[in-house]
Amino acid sequence: MDSTAVRSSKWRRDCVERDLRVGMHRVAFLVLKDKKDVGFEFEKREPKAKRERKPKEPAAKIDFTGKQPLGECPISGGKILETETAYICEHSQSDRKPCKFKLSKTILGREIPKEQARKLLTTGKTDLLDAFISKRGRPFAAYLKLEDGKIGFEFPEKPARATEFKEAQTS
Ligand SMILES: [Zn+2]
Q1: pLDDT digits (tens, 9 = 90+) for 35-62
Q2: What radius of gyration, in Å, describes the C-alpha atoms of the chain?
Q3: 136-169 per-position pLDDT tens digit
Q4: Whole-model pTM above 0.90?
């Protein structure tokens, strides 16, 4: 608050009695500025005590016990296993250099069924899958394919719109 604020002690006392709680629960006083404008004056914030940072706990390991592998990881050769949201490599749980391979179970609004994930891993390409939704909201059909351990789209011979090539992304 600038120094022109007029702080009549009596007036201020009145104001204090009517603490205004604003915003992030900070107490504000009404003050008279330039003898005519009423403004707010905030209590000084207490500097936050620095919290001691706890070392990050490692993420809980996914238990793959009893799960049937869908195929071989194109990056590490490990087993690909199903989780709730994705098909991932068994080596993704390694402490050292975890494998980054991941095939999301839903790509652009389209569910990727297990059979197609299996097919992608074994043949490098899925069947033609329809009902992907482009970022502009247009449905389109494409194959998913593996390229250097990454999942990409391959479009059928006669795509509906060339623009959808650019929009399509695997994430
Ligand atoms: Zn892997």
Answers
A1: 666 676 777 777 776 777 766 666 678 8
A2: 30
A3: 999 999 999 999 999 999 999 875 555 555 555 5
A4: no
Give me the residues near ligand 1 (ion), CB cutoff below 5 Å.
73, 75-76, 78, 89, 91, 99, 101
Boundaries of every domain in the chain: 7-42, 71-167
Distance 150 CA to ligand 1 centre (A): 11
For residue 73, give the nearest of 143, 126, 120 by alpha carbon. 120
Helix (H) or strand (E) holding 79: strand 79-82
87 neighbors 70 (Cβ within 8 angstroms): yes
Confidence band (pLDDT; 50, 70, 90) for 20?
very low
For the chain, the residue count is 171
Cα angle at 42 between 40 and 46, to 5 degrees? 175
